[in-house]
Amino acid sequence: MIGPIAITVLALTLATAVASWVVAAVYGVRALVALEGPDQKPLRKLALYAWPFAARRMTGAAGEYAAVVNKAIVVFIVCIVVAAATVSLATNYNRYTAPRADMGFGAADVDAA
User: Fold this and answer.
1) How far is CA 63 from CA 1, 36, 42, 56, 85, in A?
2) Whole-model pTM?
3) Which residue range is the domain that position 15 belongs to?
4) Is residue 107 in some structural domain?
5) Alpha carbon of 50 to those of 29, 43, 45: distances in Å?
């Protein structure tokens, strides 16, 4: 019963994670392009190596793009956590099943022993 629901939730979260990754990549490139001028070169390098520290220092259009990137990163992390929780719950709920007669746990097996 929980299997199809878990697969649906997992597919939706993974699709959302991919979409948020693409949004973060596109807006990240836009933020780097918006940093024009030779005086912005150190900030561009910092953005490549340590995004959270550089995003705070960005202003103007680059700062607006950086805000979108930060939100997309949060959505990506939330999707990964929800996907892991979905797999964990589906595994735990599908692990224990009620005994059935066709599985060898019926009354006929008890009488034969």
Assistant:
1) 47, 13, 16, 8, 33
2) 0.76
3) 2-94
4) no
5) 15, 10, 8
